[in-house]
Amino acid sequence: MDKGHALILDDEADIRELLSITLSRLGLQVHAAATLAEARQLAGARVYDLCFTDMRLPDGNGHEFIELMSRQYPETPVAMITAYGNAEAAVQALRAGAFDCVSKPVDLNVLRNLVKTALKLRAERAPGSAQPEPRLLGDSEAMQRVRATIVKLARSQAPVLISGESGVGKELAARSIHEQGPRASGPFVPVNCGAIPTELMESEFFGHKKGSFTGAHGDKDGLMQAAHGGTLFLDEIAELPPHMQVKLLRVIQEKTVRAIGGRAELPVDFRIVSATHKDLARLVETGAFRQDLFYRINVIELRMPPLRERRDDVLLLANRYLDRLAPEWSINRPKLGQDAIDALSRYDFPGNVRELENILERAVALSDGDVIRASDLHLTPRTGQQSAVPADPMLAGTMTSHLAASSGTPAVAPPSPHRDGLETYIDSLEREAITKALEECRYNKTAAAKKLGITFRALRYRLKKLGID
Fold first, then answer.
1. Is residue 382 pLDDT above 60, yes or no?
2. How many whole angstroms separate alpha carbon 98 and alpha carbon 302?
3. The pLDDT value given to residue 393
4. What angle do CA 170, 89, 91 make, to 5 degrees?
5. Structural domain harbouring 437
6. Long-range contacts (CB closer than 8 Å, 24 or more residues apart) made by 200-208
7. With CB atoms counted within 10 Å of each terminal CB, which end of the chain scores lower, N or C?
8. Is residue 264 in a domain?
9. Does the pLDDT at position 105 exceed 90?
C-alpha cells in the first residue's frame, strides 16, 4: 500500500508540529495548514486518508471544514481537536460528521489509536475488500433506510444510541455498525446492563485485582478492557444504576479505566454503542438518568422500526427463519399455508421479530405435517397479543395427564393470580413429565414422545424451551 496522506488544520504552530511528528512516525506523509482557506486548497489537490482540524480558526471554524469535507470528500475521515473538557463542542462536531474527537493537550496514545482506526477505512476502500453479509433483512422502505444509515454510522466513531421496542433487532443493528466499520477486526462485547447484579457491576465493567475484595482470588480484566480495539455494546443502558452512570461518563471522557484495587489508570480504546427500549429523554426529565451521560451516548440516534411498521418484511423473515430451522432440526423444510400467511400479515407482533421466530418455532414443533396452518400459530390478532401460555395448552395437558397417571395422584394446578406463576407451574409439570418419560424409555426420545402422546418435533421443542439436556 502506498504511503498515506494526512492533512492538519490548526493555527497553533506547536500543535501542527506535534501532530506532524507523530503522524510521520506512523508512516503518513503530512500536509499542514494554518487557515481554512489554505486547507481548502490542499483538500482539492489530493485525496487524504485522514484530516485533523482545530475548532477555532483565524478565518472560520472547524465545523465549516467538517461540513466541506463531508460534502465534497465524504470518504475522508476528519477528526476534531477540541479544548480539554469541552464535551459540548465534541458532541456538536460528531453530529456534524466528524470521525472522532481528540482533546488538548493531545494524548499520544489516544492519537495513535485514532489514526490506526481511521486508516482501516482506507483498507476497506481498497478494491476486492470483502464486505460482510447484511444481518438486518427486509426489503421495506423502513429497513432500507436503517441499512443506509448504518453504513454512514459505521464510518464514524461517534457514540450511537439505538432505540426501539423489545425484539426489533437492536443488537443486530449494533453488530452491523461494528462489522461495517474500521473496528470490525476487533472484539464486539455485548453487555446487558439489566442482567448484572448491582454489587458486581464495577468488577464486571472495570475488572479487579487479586485480594481487592472477598472472593477476588486473582486479577480479572473487565468488559471495558475486553472491548479494547473494538466496540462495547451496552444493551438496556437505562438499567444502569446512578453510581455506574457516573463512572461510565468518566470513562467516556477520560478513555481510561481503573480496576478495583488497582492504582494505575489503564487506557481503553473502544466505540460505545448503546440500546434501550425505554424513553431515555423522559427518564432524564424525571431524574432517573443523568443528563450529561445521555448527552454523550446519544450523539447519534438510530431508531429501529417495529415489525408492524414493516409488514412487507414478515413473509421474507418467516421464510428465512424456516430455512434456518429445518437443517438445525433435521426435518423437511416446513411451508406456510396461505391461511397462515394471511394470519401473520394481520398480526401486530407486540414482541416484534423475536416473537415471530418464537411463533414459528412453536408452530413447527406442534404442527402434524410439513405445512403450517393458521391454527398452528395460536395468534389472537384482534388484541395483538398471544395466548397467556406460550406453549400449546393441549401439549401441556397431555404431559400433565401422563404425569398424573405415572404418579397415581391427580395433577391439578393450584389457583395462581399471576400469569408468570401459572406459566412457571405448567413448565415445572412438563419438565417433570418429560424427565420421567425419558428415564422410563432409557432416554430414547422417539419412544418418550410416543409415551407422552406428542410428536417427536414437539418433544424436541419442549426440551429446548425447558433447557433439558
1. no
2. 17
3. 47
4. 0
5. 391-469
6. 201/241, 201/244, 202/244, 202/247, 202/260, 203/260, 205/244, 205/247, 205/248, 205/257, 206/247, 206/257, 206/258, 206/259, 206/260, 207/257, 207/259, 207/260, 207/262, 208/259, 208/260, 208/261, 208/262
7. C
8. yes
9. no
